[in-house]
Amino acid sequence: MSFDQLMPIFLSSKVSATPPELPFRFTGGFGMSSRDEGVLMVGQGFYAMFAQAILFPLLAKRFGCLKVFRAAVMLWPVLYLLVPYTVLLPPQYRVLGICFCLLWRTTAQALTFPPNNIMLTNSAPSMLVLGAINGVAGSTASLCRAFGPSITGFMYSKGLSIGVSGLGWWVTGFVCIMGAVESVLMEEAKINSSDADMEDEEEEEEEEEEAAGKHTMIDPLSVDAAIVAATRLEARSREDLSKILIPLDNQHRLPA
C-alpha cells in the first residue's frame, strides 16, 4: 500500500540537479509524465496476473505456503532500501532499474497476500469463528490502508525538506523488517482438530447408513423367486381342494 502511494510521486518528481551526498542525502525523481507512468502500471498489471495465477501456485505446491510467504516478506525491506537509489543510476539505466523494482514488488506482493489468507484460514480453531477472524483481519487491513499512505506520504515530504528523498521509503522498510522477523516465528497451522473430528463423525455416519442400507436392501431375484413359489403353492392348493370337493359333489348327486 505504501509502495503504491510512494511510487507515482517518486516517478513524477523532477530530476534533481543537486549533487548527491552519499549515502543518504540526495533528492529528486525520474520526471516522468503521466503517460509514461501509465504504461509502466499497465505492464505491472499484466505481470501481476501471471504471478498470481501461475507463479504462486507452482511455488506453493513445491515449497509450501509458509516458506513462500517468509521468503517474500524478507524481500520487502531490501526493496524499500534500494528503490530511492535508482535515481543515482546512469540515465540510460534508470528506466531499466525502475522496471526491475516494479517486477520485484509485484512478485513479492503475489507471493505474500495469497499465502497470508490461506494460513489465516487454516489457523482458525473452528470454522464457526472463521467469519469473525476474517472480519478482524479485513478491518485491520483497512486501518493500515487508511494510515499507512498518510504516514509514508508525510515522511516523504519531510525527507524532501531536509534533502533526504528516501526517508519515506526507509521508514517503511524498517516496518517491513519487523514483519520479516515476525515471519520467522510463525508456524504453519494444521487442520484444526475439531473440524477434523466433525468430518470423521460425518464419514462414520455415512458408512453406517450405507451398511444398514445394504442389510435391508431386497434382492430382486429373491422377490421373483418368492412370487413364483407363491403361485405354485396357490395352484397346488386349488388342485387339492378340487380333489376333496369333487367326491362330495358326487355323493350329493347319487340319491337323486
Unreliable stretches:
none
β-strand percent reads under 5%
How many DSSP E strands? 0
Helix/strand class: mainly alpha
Q: Distance N terminus to C terminus?
A: 120 Å
Number of helices: 9
Fraction in helix: over 70%
Q: Biggest sheet, in brief? A: none
Order of helices and strands: HHHHHHHHH
**Mean of pLDDT:** 82
**Cα radius of gyration in angstroms:** 39 Å
Shape: rod-shaped
Can you put this structure into words, describing what you see?
77% of the residues lie in helices and 0% in strands. The protein is mainly alpha-helical.
Topology of this structure?
Blueprint: H1 2-12, H2 34-63, H3 65-82, H4 91-110, H5 113-122, H6 130-161, H7 167-184, H8 193-216, H9 220-253
Helix pairs in contact: 1-6, 2-3, 2-4, 3-4, 3-5, 3-7, 6-7
Summarize this structure briefly.
The chain is 77% helix and 0% strand. By secondary structure, it is an all-alpha fold. It is rod-shaped, with a radius of gyration of 39 Å.
Quickly list its features.
mainly alpha; 256 residues; single chain; 9 helices
